[in-house]
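User: Teach me something about this protein's shape.
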Amino acid sequence: MTSQSPILVSYEDEISIITLNRPEKRNALDGTLLQAWQAILEDIASNKKIRVVILKGNGAHFCAGADIAAMQKIAKCSEDENVQDAMQLANLLKTIYTFPKPVVALVQGAVMGGGLGVIACCDIVIAADNAAFCFSEAKMGLTPSVISPYIIPLIGERAARYYYLTAEKFSAKEALSLQLVQQVVSEKQLSKTGSELALTLLKNSPHALSEAKKLIQHVTQEFYSDKLITFTAKHLAHMRASDDAKEGLSAFLEKRAPLWK
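Assistant: First, the predicted structure itself:
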């Protein structure tokens, strides 16, 4: 895996560090990145030497959500291809949520759309004080479909109604109050704080950590059923093929206000 790869992985003793590596695109998610990410997680899951995963974003931003140009392209494909593409993110989120080892996300800058779904699936999230969050989908004629099974249990229905419908940006402080993140630190302290937390986790029984995660998943499993995950992927595919989405995505790429009908 080269420095040009959309996602990088490195190792520090018993810690694996996964870095989203599309800084020029604010680490936006596309099919190539998602496929590589899924493969990396599967390898780490079976590696008994690795006990903790740290997730980072290269550059000024953690993840600005889906790659809009890629989404516009897939929206023109058949319904089956559209659903298959949506399932890539849905499956990745489930993999992160059910991962057998602790996953710690360190976020800075933009954390939007699918990026919010990713952090909602992580066990612990530490945000830099410059992080800015947004469920921006409604601005492009879309909905936060595949991330909702993980977002709504965290922030609650009332907050979801407000932020989904307004697509309003909110700060790291607000993300902390919504339980999307558990700590807020200065950007300079982000990496150090993450490393210190990883070392704290390594002091605990690996079996106990894995079983604790299973326990939490069992208690909350009604929110994350395969039936619901498939429904949200189909919902996203349906939304992407809508006239509003076509206009919204085009307007975003053309840097103009959308003309809703």
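Now, about its shape. Residues 13 and 178 are 33 Å apart (CA to CA). The chain has a mean pLDDT of 93. If you'd like, I can walk through any region in more detail.
User: That's plenty for now, thanks!
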